[in-house]
Write a structure and sequence with these properties.
Length: 313
């Protein structure tokens, strides 16, 4: 068996974390279990962004080959990832959030795809949602009603328009060329949210994207603070969509769909604030762009909530 040369990693794995110690072990174990590590060198860069749960001490006690620890004090995930990208030695960067984990073979299949398509800016795959109780909630691609061949990675046609119309990319599934990440200046720290979607769009505008329908990653859905998060995401989406306002062709069509999803987000935000009739108005705007059955079901729920609210007055 070939011994990996850890002085020259082929890939750098970037893991930002803040008070995620209950999940971090599973994330790093899923990295250690990747079979490609037997003959290809990688490094794992964990950015501990001001954890108060003993994360730093726990990391220092780990016997994980080529583990690098960077300590910060609450700079946020976008800056934390950018810092790790700057420090990385691998030509490829793989992202993994501290509360997610990879499935066996994920890293091998993706690195082989990039070897076959060396000009590709980045790659991604399907992923499975689960909650803290272990219940499964379908895949990311199922949510977006997107289908693609499950075996291997394939060039995503009209990538920028596709990803503008549907935010298919789960960050923990992504592998990207470091030089392309540096060329785009990485994750936009000026955005209040959605900096991941923004980056994938900018990368897709610069080079090929590869996609696989295989599930390679489990993604944890953690509750808490959804109303505040949704407001920030809506603000960020509005900022991002401005740059597509005057585009034509497939981009214009995709931008209209994205605007519809923005309206759907506004509807959910209104419902969370206890404004069902306002939510219904936004839902109607979303329906005009998207024509999705789930919008009708949500609209019916808005009406019932509004009627109940009126009955209490």
């Amino acid at each position: 068996m070939q011994t990996p040369d850890y002085k020259t990693p082929k890939c750098s794995i970037v893991v930002p974390t803040r008070d995620c110690l209950p999940y971090l072990n599973a994330a790093l174990m899923s990295v250690a279990a990747q079979d490609i590590l037997q003959n290809v060198s990688v490094e794992t860069i964990v950015v501990d962004d001001g954890s108060s749960d003993g994360t730093r001490q726990w990391l220092e006690a780990q016997n994980m080959p080529n583990l690098r620890i960077i300590t910060q004090n609450g700079i946020g995930p976008a800056r934390a990832r950018n810092l790790a990208i700057e420090a990385a030695r691998g030509a490829l960067i793989a992202f993994l959030d501290a509360d997610d984990f990879w499935w066996p073979g994920k890293l091998r299949a993706q690195m082989e795809a990039h070897a076959t398509h060396p000009d590709a800016a980045f790659s991604f795959s399907d992923y499975l949602h689960f909650d803290p109780d272990g219940a499964l909630h379908g895949t990311g691609f199922e949510f977006w009603s997107y289908t693609v061949q499950k075996s291997g990675y394939h060039v995503l046609e009209d990538a920028e328009a596709t990803l503008l119309g549907a935010n298919l990319v789960g960050t923990s599934t992504v592998m990207a060329r470091r030089d392309m990440l540096l060329r785009t200046n990485g994750f936009a720290t000026s955005l209040p949210s959605a900096e991941d979607w923004d980056l994938w769009l900018r990368l897709a505008g610069m080079g090929e994207a590869l996609v696989s329908g295989a599930i390679t990653t489990s993604y944890l859905m953690r509750p808490g603070g959804e109303t505040a998060k949704r407001g920030a995401r809506i603000a960020a989406m509005e900022m991002i969509l401005v740059r597509y306002a005057n585009r034509s062709g497939s981009i214009a069509h995709a931008s209209a769909k994205a605007r519809g999803r923005l309206c759907a987000g506004q509807a959910e935000w209104a419902r969370e604030r206890g404004e069902p009739w306002n939510a219904l108005t936004w839902r109607a705007r979303a329906w005009s762009a998207l024509r999705e059955g789930r919008l009708l079901r949500a609209a019916a729920s808005d009406v019932l909530a509004g009627m109940r609210q009126g009955a209490k007055l």
